[in-house]
Specification:
By secondary structure, this protein is an alpha+beta fold. Helix content is 28%, strand content 35%. The strands form three sheets. Strands 3-2-7 form a three-stranded antiparallel beta sheet, covered by helices on one side. The N terminus is likely disordered.
């Protein structure tokens, strides 16, 4: 009887509904995206493009590292994108109701 009760308690604790977790698996996402500061030189020369920044998150959603995944073709735009990513706020990936470290791609577009 005690073994069955222990098994029942163990299963109840693993149940996502019992932990308050409604959606057990959620992809990492941006909570607040900082706007990039487009460098003056980029405006002067009409530089445009899109930069993809790989943001590595810890289980709490804090940025562990950030790097250029795909360049816009202009270092000045890439640096502005990197800074915007570092100033943004993220939600980490959740698997089985547990926050996990992981990587997330942050897109920064520099239109004309």
């Amino acid at each position: 009887m005690i073994d069955l009760l222990l098994l029942s308690l163990t299963l109840a604790a693993a149940d996502p509904a019992s932990t308050g977790c409604v959606v057990p698996n959620v992809a990492a996402s941006t909570v607040i995206a900082a706007l990039p500061n487009k460098p003056v030189i980029a405006d002067n020369y009409n530089l445009t493009g899109t930069t993809w920044v790989q943001v590595d998150l810890d289980p709490n959603g804090q940025i562990a590292s950030a790097s250029i995944a795909k360049s816009s073709g202009y270092a000045t735009l890439d640096q502005a994108a990197l800074e915007a990513a570092r100033q943004s706020t993220f939600r980490p990936e959740t698997q089985d109701c547990q926050q996990r470290p992981g990587s997330y791609l942050f897109e920064v577009d520099f239109p004309q």
